[in-house]
Amino acid sequence: MKSILILIVIAAFKLSAQQAQLKTVDFVDLKKYAGLWYEIAKIPNSFQDHCIKGTTAKYSIKPDGEITVINSCIDEDGDLDETTGIARVVDKKTNSKLEVSFVSFLGWRPFWGDYWIIGLDPNYQWAVIGTPKRNYGWILSRTPKLETNTLNKIFELLKEKGYDPKDFEMSKQ
Question: I need a surface site. Which of 30, 56, 87, 146 has the fewest CB within 10 A?
Fold first, then answer.
């Protein structure tokens, strides 16, 4: 009986460890990834609380390999809110694990957040962004809307990656 209990605990631990590992896409061509993306859905977060619609992200590759990130949205007052940051590639083999920073003190960036590309359309028409702890997530598209069948496919991918699609709220464009 004791050995069966130990086997159950080991199996549960292995399953938990596999669930905890978030797999990214195999490779991202950053030149194809660069450009404008529309936010289709997100897991609500405090740093986007003021955004009510029109959320986009624009990525541009700098000569030094860093990526300029310009996030924008329309806030509660109807004003355009724009934030500029930097992304850097963490996993140069796949380019699918990045970190982003929107805080700079005299050029020093003390805070970096994970930005992992966990789903990507072969033609770079949509992307799914996640973090290892699964506390943040975004669905992005090259167009302001996605077809229902594409969105359902993305929600299935999120389930496979250990996310609950119900945690995502649709964004207004």
Answer: 30
What letter represents residue 165's amino acid?
A: P
DSSP one-letter code for 47? G
Phi, psi (degrees; rounded to nearest 5) at 69: -120, 125
Q: What is the pTM of this model?
A: 0.87
In degrees and rounded to multiples of 5, residue 102 shows phi and psi of -120, 10
Residue 78, amino acid: G
pLDDT at 76: 94
What's the length of the chain?
A: 173
Question: How does DSSP classify residue 156?
Answer: H
Report how far residue 101's alpha carbon sits from residue 123's, in angstroms, rounded to the nearest whole number.
27
Low-confidence ranges of the chain (pLDDT < 50): 1-19
d(CA 109, CA 83): 15
CA angle 65, 51, 157 (to 5 degrees): 65
What per-residue confidence (pLDDT) applies to 13?
41
Helices (H) and strands (E) in the chain, counts: 3, 9
Do residues 120 and 28 touch, judged by C-beta distance below 8 A?
A: yes
Is-contact 86 100, C-beta < 8 A? yes
N- to C-terminal Cα separation, the chain: 58
Which residues are 116's β-sheet partners?
97, 130
